[in-house]
Design goal:
The chain is mainly α and 138 residues long. It has helices at 8-23, 28-42, 44-55, 70-80, 85-101, 107-127. The chain is flat, with a radius of gyration of 17 Å.
Length: 138
């Protein structure tokens, strides 16, 4: 008998969560809502965040060329533009939820992308200490 994989329980819980959330798309209104939210993450939110980062006077583009997905970009934006977090966090959580509901990603995809993006942003701030994040007024 093969030994159980260390993350087998996590995998089974994540798959069950995905299937449960995906079943909500049987309702056309829910499916359309989450499809629209998901499309926001494909273009408008992505380009707006990149524009905000480039417009930041301290931004040096240290991680701008990495292709990691929206949650990684949000992690970067939160490190460089922390004043956007009240707007950005609910929006990205809704987009991430839409991707799970529509069966496009697992929850861990968004979580890991955000951790990687935020970690890279913190690393870039450490490597370039003269480049400080823009502190936006609350």
């Amino acid at each position: 008998m093969p030994a159980p994989r260390p993350l087998a329980r996590f995998d089974s819980v994540e798959i069950l969560l995905c299937r449960t959330l995906n079943q909500s798309t049987r309702h056309q209104t829910i499916r359309r809502f989450f499809a629209g939210v998901s499309r926001l993450g494909d273009g408008p939110v992505w380009y707006t965040l990149m524009g905000a980062l480039v417009a930041n006077p301290g931004w040096k583009g240290a991680v701008a060329s990495l292709q990691m997905g929206l949650t990684a970009l949000v992690g970067i934006a939160l490190a460089w533009l922390p004043g956007l977090s009240p707007l950005l966090l609910p929006l990205v959580l809704l987009i991430a939820l839409s991707r799970v509901v529509l069966g496009l990603h697992y929850p861990s995809d968004g979580l890991v992308g955000g951790i990687i993006g935020y970690g890279l942003a913190r690393l870039s701030l450490w490597l370039y200490p003269a480049a400080t994040p823009l502190q936006m007024a609350s």
